[in-house]
Amino acid sequence: HGLAFLQFLSLMLYMISPLIRMPLLSHLPPLNLQVTGGSSGIGKSIAMELNWFKWKKKVEKCAINDKQVFDVSKDYGQVESVIKQCQEKLGPVDMLVNCAGPSFSGKFEEVEVERFRSLMEVNYLGSVYPTRAVIATMKERRMGRIMFVSSQAGQIGLFGYTAYSPSKFALCGLAESLQMEMKPCNIYVTVAYPPDTDTSGLPLETRLISETSGVTQPDQVAKIVVKDAGNFNISVGPDGYMLSALTCGMSPVTSITEGLQQIVTMGLFRTVALFYLGSFDSIVRRCMIEREQSKAADKRE
Asked: Considering all CA atoms of the chain, what is the largest pairwise distance in Å, rounded to the nearest integer?
């Protein structure tokens, strides 16, 4: 009876939480927003969703040397210069959305060593540099919002993501540390954990594991991310909600309700997660056996 009550309570908390949380952005005047990685995928969808809500004064691309694209992970000096130009032209950045960074999958021993470095540069430093460039102005004004778009692969390590997952895990540590530093300055930090939006090109094992939670379109992710931008953690879908509760650790909470949800659901979600992990291990073993059988059949022929 006790377990049934906890399950019922957790379900009720999950259902009423959208009513309790305040969508802070919807109550704010138009903002100057900057979205890195806004030319495609989730970044583009977030930029369009923000513009649709009319929270920014206008959509405008900032160029350097007449180029519409520049690398936010290679040269901090260049990043700082471009953002300075943007702020001189459009005003100070009120909200920065760090979304630049590619996904990548491959077996550990098959991934080029250079790829580990490049993913950490783009996915981690590509968020550090723009944030570093806007933080001084935000502190002077004592206001601002910074969002990091991580991934569910930044909450759980999966087959095929040995190069990608660490670069996304790093964003969580950055966000938690930065939030503690910036909160007294009225600067708030958010980290979002979207699921896979495309499983094409993934190793078979990775694709099968990813498909257990389904594939979400970038537009769907953007709607949730923008709606929940007042929270520290943003999860997408029931699996994402479970992962966020399981991995919350010492993460800050946005409300008492969120903290209660995590306390009540932790044991139940850990039980469910063990079944998931068993299923993932089974997928990996099955794929390995099928691959070995296929090789053996080829040799016999």
From this structure: 73
User: Is 150 annotated as catalytic?
Assistant: yes
> Which whole number is the average pLDDT over 204-216?
83
Is 164 an active-site residue?
Answer: yes
Point out the catalytic residue in the list 10, 150, 167, 235: 150
Instruction: Read off the pTM.
Output: 0.83
Determine whether 168 is an active site residue.
Answer: yes
191 vs 61, higher pLDDT: 191
Quick: pLDDT tens for 113-130.
999 999 999 999 999 999
Separation of first and last alpha carbons in the chain: 60
Q: At what angle do helices 256-300 and 2-20 cross, to 10 degrees?
A: 110
Among 149, 175, 171, 168, residue whose Cα is nearest residue 105: 168
Instruction: List, for residues 127-151, the tens digit of each pLDDT value.
Output: 999 999 999 999 999 999 999 999 9
